[in-house]
Amino acid sequence: MAETTGTYSDPNTTPPLAQAVPLGLQHVLAMFASNVTPSIIVAGAAGLAFGGPEQIYLIQMAMLFAGIATLFQTVGIGPVGARLPIMQGTSFAFVGVLAGVAATQGLGVALTACIIGGVIHFCLGAFIGKLRWLFPPLVTGLVILAIGLYLIPVAIKYAAGGAAKFQMEAESFGSLMHWSVALTVVIVALGVKFFTKGMLSNAAILIGLIAGYVVAYAQGMVNFGAVAKASWVTSITPLPYGFEFSLGAVIAVTLVSIVSAIETVGDASATAKAGAGRDATDAEIQGATYADGLGTAVAGVFGGLPNTSFSQNVGIVGMTGIMSRHVVTIAGVIMIICGLLPKIGAVIASMPLPVLGGGVIVMFGMVASAGLNVLTEVKMNRRNMVIIAISLAAGLGLNLVPTAVQYLPGVVKTLMTSAVAPTALCAIVLNLVLPEED
């Protein structure tokens, strides 16, 4: 597809259907792998069988509610929705917190925290502009960097063939067979990303995963048993793991929600600038935040993880020059259709761990790189370097050595070992307390 197909700087205009459908598919391809990966990781942390029906269900909900949340953004309901071409998807920012909660307290607690966190996130829309001063590039960059650094070990474990303790003790863990598959994904994804253009380049991770999938299949690593058993139409279950309240989990998810809301403000602003050459209006920023929170709360009720705006899709708007929100509405409808077909979820769930590992090595590395990119806006004087040092040391250090705070109360311990929460808290407090340097 050509990189520029026309001038559609008004969100309410629509390209001809022959262009609009491929453009919508392009948005789906750019975010598809990133959208389903968090659910796979959190399901694994919760101890769900890899490729089992429960994991397939969580994957289905990730696709279904990414589509529904996208429609909240593009079509809108009253004040909800920016009505800009913003693609929603499952957020990586919450993976660290939710994986930890799911592993220690169960998916019921994790999803309940998502519902409550989504409601709080929704309420942030009323005064999101007044909170932006708490999250300058120094704070948001640190939080995003901490998320990426926390997740990279998970990527390496998957690439080597496992994530759970018993899998890492297996003889095959770290074998050449596993690494050959993971490296196939990485090499193909990089090749496609940097040596092709347009739709192919935007779908680089997805194409890399398909290549790794083929190599894994050739080595006898793929089992299609679950695909054959999966039904053609999904059944949606409210509160599939019950409603279990944990204050620590809610606080941790809410802290990440605030950061996610600030990211959405940035994405809304970037979309308006890239597609129309203007600043986003206050109503658009508020509507984008409302849609974020509503999408997260509704998804949580049915087993979906928190949703947020996807920055890579902002890049597509800038690349194509197509500002039409209706193009992204088509993308949302495609995701809803995928979410209603369990066969698709079963195919994704049949993906061997090394295939997924190769993909998330790139994805998680890019999350960390995005954090570094935000930090390039920060002047590296002694004050800011101290804030970076202490925030990362506290956040990542306590996560790596959780027994260091084993005597803290449960709520506080959950927060202190979540990586993201202590990094954010330290960065915010130190940025407010330490005097600026000339």
UniProtKB/TrEMBL annotation:
This protein's source sits in the domain of life called: Bacteria
Please list the coiled coil stretches: none
Q: Which GO terms describe its molecular function?
A: xanthine transmembrane transporter activity
- Subcellular localization(s) per the UniProt record: Cell membrane
Main localization of the protein?
membrane
Membrane topology label: Multi-pass membrane protein
Keywords, alphabetical: Cell membrane, Membrane, Transmembrane, Transmembrane helix, Transport
* GO cellular component terms given for this protein: plasma membrane
**InterPro entries per UniProt:** NCS2, UacT-like, Xan_ur_permease
Annotated TM spans = 28-50, 56-77, 109-128, 135-156, 176-196, 203-222, 242-262, 327-349, 355-375, 387-408, 414-434
Could you say which protein family the record assigns here? Belongs to the nucleobase:cation symporter-2 (NCS2) (TC 2.A.40) family.
The name this protein carries in UniProt is Uric acid transporter UacT
